[in-house]
Amino acid sequence: MTTMFRYPVFPHLQDPRDPGLSLPPGRRVMAEPDYLEGDCDELIKPKKLINPVKSSRNHQDLHRELLMNQKRGLAPQNKPELQKVLEKRKREQIIKAQKEEQEAHKKKSDLEIELMKRQQKLEQLELEQQKIEEEQENTPEFVKMKSNLRRTKQETDGEERTT
């Protein structure tokens, strides 16, 4: 690709293997500003403007605190509401799938189900017996003696009838 200019028009599109069309190694595509050469002292050179927000003490303290929290893993959650809802649904689906998987592993046979029912019935009977015993322990002594006398009287009456 030959041009009538000294430099190629589109150097980034040129073939890098062709040495006649490429730029010298120190040269860039963009033009460099004239004020960097330093030969004109009377020109006013531009300075970078100071950002008043970044220079404020409050901003620096807040930035320092955010950096420390990020290092500790306490960065604030600035996620959109939709993303939060989707993550929550995904977590719930994972938990549900894990529960279903555990239930599939724990499928019980009919025998195991019957044994569980019998065990529950026995536990209920034991609880009822304990309640009755506690009630008897809480009753006053004279009521216990009266019930004992009735039993002995019934036993003696039963013996007399049999003889």
What would you note in describing this structure?
The chain is mainly α. It is built from five helices and no strands. The protein has helices at 52-55, 57-72, 81-105, 110-138, 141-162. The longest helix is centred in the C-terminal third of the chain and has 29 residues, at 110-138. It holds the Pfam family DUF1151. Residues 152-163 have a biased composition (Basic and acidic residues). Keywords: Coiled coil. It comes from Oryzias melastigma. Residues 1-27, 129-163 are annotated as: Disordered.
The radius of gyration computed from the alpha-carbon positions, rounded to a whole number of angstroms, is 47 Å
Portion of residues in beta strands equals under 5%
Number of strands: 0
CA-based shape: elongated
Sketch the topology as an H/E string, one letter per element: HHHHH
Low-confidence stretches: none
Mean pLDDT equals: 78
- Straight-line N-to-C gap: 139 Å
- Tally of DSSP helical segments: 5
Helical amount among residues, as a percent range? 55-70%
Major beta-sheet overview: none
Going by helix content, strand content and strand pairing, the class is: mainly alpha
